[in-house]
Protein 1
Amino acid sequence: MDFNFSQVVGLIETLYSNTLAAGQVVQVQSQLQQFQKHQGSLQVADQLLDPRNNYSLECQFFGALTYTVQLNQIFSTWGAVVDDESDIDDDETLKGATGTDDTRNMVDQLTLRQLSHLNNLLTQHFVHRQPNLFVIKKVFSNLSLVYCHNFHNWTNPLLSFLGTQDDPSISSLRLSVANIEHHLQASLAGSAQKLQLVLLFSQIIIEDILKNNTMSDHLDQQLHTCLRKEVFVVTEFFVNYSMNLVIEKLNNNNNNNNNNNNNNNNNNNNNTPKLSNDNNQLLADAVRCYTAWTSYISFSYLNSTEKFIIDPTLNLLIKFLLCHQTSDQLINDSDSIFVVIEFLTNLLETNANLLNNSFKQTINDLIFKDWGMNYLNFLNGSGDDDLIENEKSVQDFAKLVISYFELDMVRISKLLVDDSCSYIFQALMKLTAFPGTPILDEEISRDFIEFWLETSDTLIDDTDSLLILLKTTENLQLFKKNFKTLLELLGKTYWTKVQLPLANQTSMKMIKGQYKDEYFSYRRDVGDLFDSMYVIIKDSIFKFLFDNIINNLNVTSLTLQNASEVEASVFLINCMCSNFSEGNVPDEIFGMLVHLFSFHRNEEINFLKIGLITNNSYLMNTTVSFLSSINFFYKSEQGLGFLNEILDYLFNLLSLSIQSKELPGKFQFIVARAIASICSQCRTFLASSLFKFEPLLFNVINSIDFKAFTREKVINSVSFIIQGIKNPQTQGEYIVKLLQLINDQSTKIFSEIKSGRVNNNHDLNILLDYLVSLLDCVLQIARGMQLPEESVIFYNDEERQLVDNFWIADNLGIHSMILQIISGFSLDPELTNIFITNHNNGESLGVTDGSVKINYHNLVTEKCCEIFRAGLCEDINGPFVFADNQIIIDYVLSKFEDTKNRIDVDKPHSSMTLSIGYLFGLLETFVSANYRKLSKEAVTNCIITIFVMNPQLLNSDVDLFTNALQFLNKVIEKKPDLLFYISDNSANYFATILESCMVVLKQSNEKFVIKTVVKFWCNLITLRAGTRENQEYITRIFIDEQFGQKLTNVTFSALLKSTRSNYEIYCDIVRNMIGKYPLQFKQWANNALILINNQRVSNGKKALPDIRQLISKLYLTKGTRKVNMVIKDFWLAANGLMDI
Amino acid sequence: MSSLRLARLQEERKSWRKDHPFGFFAKPAKNPDGSMNLQSWTAGIPGKPNTLWADGVYPISITFPDDYPSKPPKVKFPANFYHPNVYPSGTICLSILNEEQDWRPAITLKQIVLGIQELLGSPNPDSPAQEPAWRAFGKDRATYDKKVKEQAQKYIK
């Protein structure tokens, strides 16, 4: 494509006009990109870049960009010559790697042209005040690109940049640092701006090199050397020169001020550039440039042998800071001081390996001797207001201090035993206690959390280093004492910090709003700090916090400040309490807790009342969390007396939570969780006070306003307590009350729904949710009533017998009540219709909004199955243990019949199939728990109903088949005898199942399905729990009826086709076949693999690897896990893959 | 504890302190003497905002094997945690935690917890680890959503 000049300019102007639609932008960009790759594009670029042509800055920038494109094109083949000149010596290789003579000449010319453009652009910038710095930067970047590739020929771009301004010829490209100082001085005459540009150019070069570090190692080493010997030397000179200029000016100013001399500054050196009043800018440029260099130097230490000396420059930076002593000086140069401190902080944090001990000591002196303390005093000014005003500077100084200490945390221990260093810790503490609410007003205290945590962890965990450093045990003791004192002070500081500003509505609004995550993350971090500090300061921190709570309770009327302080104390106690468990709690803690709960126990203001009186949700929330973290206390002799009172309090809060609009919705979950935690831990202590909970239970079950989670947690909690009653009659009476409440309420709701008066989807869903929650309450009772793991010690023999007999007799009719509820929910056809209709479309109930409906039928079936399951594994009889096995089988088969009729087998993956999965799951657990007592007839009846009578249903959904197979697997695993010889047609149905399993093994890709069907075959092969007759029966099927051959064919076929993550599952069949049928399997495998191989070859696929060798290797493994490795190699080879 | 593992875990602890995402927590367990057991951590993963998981902070345990970081840590939710990619034991099925898949020694604790947070809201149906949640996720999304929300209440922030 041909381009003319005006067309290109037009396209550029259009591109940057911001008037194009997105599609047009792409089109114009594409045209311009084509132009940039065009041979003649550089001539146009030269025209565009020449400011005398008066093109827009965008056009100028595009000119520079065109150079970038062309240079990249040249350099993309720059090193290719090497490959063609492999027989030349090292020097020649180097030449080859850096282009041919022609390309080098061309690159030199392009370099000079850009340097020339730079001259013009600088004139435009400085003389005509055009804002073209972005164009200048782009040209610098182009030159940096040239240097990266051409540094063998062009060693010092900085000098060339200066040199071409006097002599724009090729000779400017050959300037080197040898005897250069004179040239530098001359070049600098009169221009601070030139200084800044050299610094900028240097910065761009070194940043580009770090960014594009993609060159080969061979070149890298030489580039590192060239950078150090040439570019760094010039850079260092200019950085130091700039620093000296700034310092000199500062000193002159200081002297002038000191002498009260109003004369103008006189520089002795006529060549010294005249500095503008803006010292800050030159210093900032120098520091920014040097920051980039220190990053590079740190990188080069790891990647080269070059060593850079940076101390002189660093010392100049320190010298600069030390020049600032008076308030005026600190105020005038606050920006520059900030820049230098930030540089030092970065250096310590990321490139500390560049610093020698001497400089570290210099920083130490800077921070902790006169200058640092003077600076801190200056920032502090006359008090908190000044400190707040200087927050940014304080924060930066704090970061410097932290990063300095983090070089070697153990060092702090040494300072702690040195009285003369106490001021250091005073300073640290002052910084930590920076005034204001954290996150909202200040972030310094947050920065210090990490520092103190690190300190505390190091000094706890690194005791070996401590002893070495401190040398004597006396010192160690002194250290421990001082460290403890320091942490106690720190604890008080952060206790203040975590107090919620309850009295300040604006702050609280921010905390609840945009700062929520950050603020509470801060509090959690402080909690971690206390957790860590506790190891050292032990009880004293608890005492401080408990005393504070008591003091705040010892008032005649409560304020928000009281609430705030108590909340902070409870929050921090809670953070530390979470580490206690029975047996490791110090006695002192028990004493403090007793004091806390008994203080003003019967008076208007006490610990449990303060949240309610102040009506503060934060305090209530924190208190509830605290109450649920001290179970060790309730179980103790001292704490037992408070248990009822505390539960009363929690139940009150629970009632309050659904009445109060001010408490957050989640509050009732937190309270319910606390109640559940306490009840489950202290069940045996609560039995005598169970009657007190009856009103609440009534309320929780009958009120639809409680969230389902809360209702279920409370019922579960109370059930735990009921379980703790050893008298089964009393247990039974409570259970009857609960079940009666649930039954009555659910019957009432059923009637309401059946009446058809609910025609609103939202209301209907609320009622259905409530119903499911009521059913879940039965499940929670069942779970609560499960015997604890230590049931053997829970009941003695006599008690066990008594309980067992009681539930066998079941005079209270509890089993019947449970079955009645299950039947009402799950087997009532009218209700089932409602559950399903609501799920399908809701139209019969007048619901037409088309929203996704919850499948309540599945939920109800799941809960019913879980209720049955809860009693299956109990050691002795109980309310949910059904002695008659037929009850569960009947339920499963009835529900199965009902559900399968509602599944359209032509529509696979119906969600209704989940219900059937739950039923099969129940059967699986049932078999697992009761296989010894089951009859063959009962089991076979289930199997025939599921597998033989409903093949279409099972085949319609592989998940259903898998669930059914899991049940069958359990029968084979536990008692295969239940499966065989039960009727005359047993062989037929069994053959049907085997055929189905063969098909599933062959066709399935899903891991769950493959695992289940493989497990089925493995169980069948091994038949571990089978009788001799069972074994003979299966052997006959495998050998005489040739299922062994069929299974081997299908296994190898599926294995070879399976994915990398699945093939290993099939190995189990191979292993078991080798073990069980060693003689036959060799032939079966041979036949199968030959068959598969022939099919592959006839389909044009690659032949299988050596079959005979595979079989030999398999047999060498003797059916051990090594089979997997052999199969893996075979699978990889057969599929043409490599092991990686 | 091997020096490599110790150094790396100390570094992880330090990095976490310096920079951890809001709402997450992670800390080593404590030995009886109060010192840290860096091999065993507890952590909390907040559900992502505007997802079903948003209301909860879900606890995990992280156990670092002897040959960490060559091998990945074992990360577990509580047993029976409801999620398609969490095994009934609570073990999380995530490629970056699998030595044979995407685990690399350079993966940090922060990346792990963020990866788990991402997994909560975006289950991988191709790596099922438990049947109930996986089946519901695939076949009955409304029930899946309901159960996830109920679980969030259990682990409410």
Protein 2
Amino acid sequence: MKRILPVLLALMATAALLFVSCGQGLSADHAEFVMSNGAEPTIDPSLLNDVPSTNVDLGLFEGLMQYDPKTNLGVPGIAESYTVSPDGLTVTFKLRNAEWSDGHPVTAGDFVYAMKRILDPATASDYAYMPAMVIKGADAFNSGKDTNFDDVGIKAIDDHTLQYTLLGPTPYFVNMTTHNSFWPLPKWAIDKNGNNWTKPGNIVTDGPYILKEWKPQQYVFMVKNNKYWDAKNVHLRSIKILSSDNQDTNYNMYTSGSVDWMFGISNAKIDQIKLRPDYQTSAQVATYYYEFSVDRKPVNNVLVRRALAAAIDKQTLVDKVTKSGQIPTNSMVPPMAGYTQQQGQGYDVALAKKLLAQAGYPNGRGFPTITIVYNTNDTHKAIAEYIQEQWKTNLNINVVLRNMEFKTLIDLRTKHDFQVARAGWVGDYLDPNTFLDLFTTGAGNNDCAYSNPQYDKDITQAALTQGDARMKLLEQAEDLLLKDQAVIPLYFYANQDLIDTNKWGGWYSTPLGYHPFKYIYKK
Amino acid sequence: MTKFIIRRFLSLIPTMFVIVTLSFFLIRFAPGGPFSGEKVLPEQVIQNLMKKYHMDQPMYKQYLEYLGNVLRGDFGPSFRYKESTVNELIGESFPTSIILGSVALAFALVAGLGVGVGSALKQNKWQDYTAMSFAVIGISVPMFVVGPVLQLAFAMKLHWLPVTGWITGRAGLAALVLPALTLGFPYFAYIARLSRASILEVLRSDYVRTARAKGLSERVVIWRHVLKGALLPVVSYIGPAFAGIITGSLVVEQVFVVPGIGQIFVQSALNRDYTLIMGEVIVYSLLLVAMNFLVDIVYGFLDPRIAYK
């Protein structure tokens, strides 16, 4: 024992020393603003496809347009102004005098290079589909069918003029350029450093901040970029973004003062947290819904689907189950300027019973047990249990719940191998099309296997039409989708953030959940 | 002895081969894949991704290529962390888990042995009952309860220690205390019970009776004769415990946001990050077999009755 104790003490001391030496690597800083984020898998704008990475990059990069801090609509960024041709097919941006963090000017050629890189099949970018769905020739280049990039509708007229040629008049295109798939990239830095170009010291950025430290799984530390074109209006000296995605721990860090902004609240704590004055909530451009695989019995019968939709009290669902400011809805498309949401089947128990009887199941007699599939998560479970109870009480039918991990659910949904499945859709841009084109026949995200020729026609026609007529076509399509009841929209998601707006200004609850750091300041 | 060590070492090779082969195919048979998500990617984008990661090749070719890369020590690129290789990710996170695990195990050993010895010497007295009740709590209360309770008490109420500090790099050694205590707690409890039982057994053995009969002081009997014999089960437990403490640190790493290997392990499985899962399985397996191998060797030094055949 005499020999063992010193060994143990030495072991502890060694471990402690190792820890201290590691700790020294994490140099102390004086971050003015700290947020908790999930772990960011990448900060390369061509490769990112997730919220934490986007949050980081919103501090580092800027596109032609940037997100407005209140509305998340596009406001001029690197572009000073833009013009759209009368037919809506050509959009020309005039670039301002802006610099990269290393002093290079930001030119139209940087946007062309970035577009070529993201569309290049070898880059294998997830988000290549964004430009591919709107820019002429982009889809063919991305699929490798056309290897000549000159055929893609993007052209640097001169260093300060950038022109896009679109597939159709796309009213949301200008807003779309806020997205990372449209940002410029520094070719010289990427050529020089290859895959390591995003490492601190190598990375060159055109946004309000520059990357100082990046410790994956730990934190990102960025400081103000004095070469940014609007540096005089950038308030925070530095920002630290923590890679913590444990909501309870984030909350503990927030309440102990080591984090200034966190998002995402665990459902178990919501009753307590929503009473706090610094709890911020707002409607998100995102819909939570249940979808039917419309070829599966018994939900292949539209009367059954409508009966099921009419038997759910969504107001009680958000008041008693989700409880976080979600907005109950009978529409698939969240509220958007210039668009009239279509109203689908609301809560009506008498009608639900009648519809079920018409479908051949009076008072639920003879109705087979159906299954709801959802990915394992406390909130999804609570919602599924609530709907199970609603359908049992209101329609006298039996429902089995089956939870599974997320990727397994996606696999079932993609194969249309379910009766009722949980789903959610977050808008990629502020336009109804982002919620509707996914239900066209054969679309990759059409888990329902829904097919209605009129619906397809409306969506296709809308892509070629402008103004009010376009919105009418989209409204018509949503109406069809809801009448066919391929989905049951349940609620619009709510953003949930904790930030003391008495202390921090320039931060607002926004529909897309983007909060550009540029505008945030300490009061 | 040398023969035993060589033979034992060589037997690790087929063990690792079976682990790598089974894991490689099992994860590929799991539903979904690395490129599936809430938003289904267009077919051409998926084709581009498949090509980039050589998943457009037949399965056997992918397997042989992977095996060749592993033999060269290359675990390949991560599917999820697109700018990092699996080697880089493991290289960055594994030392953190080792440090945390070492401190947790050291705490478990020192405290566990102390409490175990004390309890055995005060058998059936209040000290014994108190210590063993504490040990039962340690074994039965899961880490995801212990961690937040410690956070609540020592960080949020008393403000003695940070909620988490590793992630910010600001808190220094203080950041290590709560995660190490949480991680080491069940192991401390187990070692306390194990050493208590073992000491009680040795105390009743003939050679201890002989030592006492020879007139040796109780202190000498305990330190020189009892403890050495009683430590054997604890030593054999250290190997698997160390491996277990490293591989089982996931919950603690999540609660205290420690950037260790456990943090990325579960995520890699959920993301179907094939190469990262494989890399971690290999590292964990190596750790487990290496620890068992070491224990087998150390055992012989402590107990001369064990012969290596």
